[in-house]
Amino acid sequence: LRFGRLLLTGAAGHLGRELRPRLKRYCDTLRLSDLSPLEQAGAGEETVVADLADQAAVESMVAGVDAIVHLGGVSTEMPWEPILAGNIVGLYNLYEAARRQRVRRIVFASSNHVTGFRRQDEVVTTRDPVRPDGLYGLSKAFGENLAQLYWDRHGVETVSLRIGSSYAEPKDRRMLATWLSFDDLERLLVSSLTAPVVGHTVIYGMSDNRTTWWDNRYASHVGYRPQDSSEQFRAAVEARQPSLDVADPATRYQGGAFVTQGPHD
Ligand code: NAI
Ligand code: 15L
């Protein structure tokens, strides 16, 4: 796999910084974009500081790229205004630019919070109805629907990754089920960028964890094979968090603490 120019949005963020050195291996030029300042461009890199809500800025950010890994936007429960700007208007601007400029494929960082109000004793497939756990999850559901429209109507392909919890290690018991290692995230991105035909495919981004709430049976054509598991961290996580209150909504629902957080407290 080698792209000419690949665009990574949200490049100054937690996952963007992790992926910057990794994605360079798969392209001649990696264009990095964020609202926040970016580290200076190295060899084979370009940097663009732009607000996703600025249509003209997004148009030039997308110019000349072969594919997009879209991580940019609000990544937690927040007031409506920043979510509207980054995740609704921003998504529209990105897909319009991709349509006009004939970008073939986008990998969209959606989130498990699209189905965060599913219970932890349910197993959900990517074809089950969504159940967002807040404005953030709702905005990601919009993003997935937008991606579907741009495939059906304009032929722009997308893999929507419902990422679980991508950190160096799972931080709590919930993340034993939702954890996605950085190496598996890279595998998922490479599979999503290179699978021959994806149309609009939704896939949960998780490692090969022993406990899971998600079933990727409708995304096997993506060819993602996780190789890590949260199991190696289980003993330490359970020692840190010895008991769970099953009456707590954060324990009952897949979205964890997100189901009670945010402007609606
Ligand atoms: P992050 O918050 O660290 O990074 C997001 C980046 O987007 C930030 O650098 C921010 O400056 C930028 N951004 C926000 N609003 C913007 C705007 N209007 N215009 C341009 N840039 C803007 O989040 P993280 O953890 O790196 O996540 C990356 C993506 O993956 C996000 O879309 C998030 O929703 C998604 N995701 C991440 C998960 C995780 O475990 N880290 C889990 C599920 C989804
Ligand atoms: C997300 O969507 C967030 O971006 C991230 O901060 C994590 O909290 C993750 O979900 C999660 O559910 O653990």
Automatic annotation (TrEMBL):
InterPro entries for the chain: Epimerase_deHydtase, NAD(P)-bd_dom_sf
Keywords: Carbohydrate metabolism, NADP
TM stretches of this protein: none
Domain NAD-dependent epimerase/dehydratase: 7-179
Protein name: NAD-dependent epimerase/dehydratase family protein
Organism: Caenimonas terrae
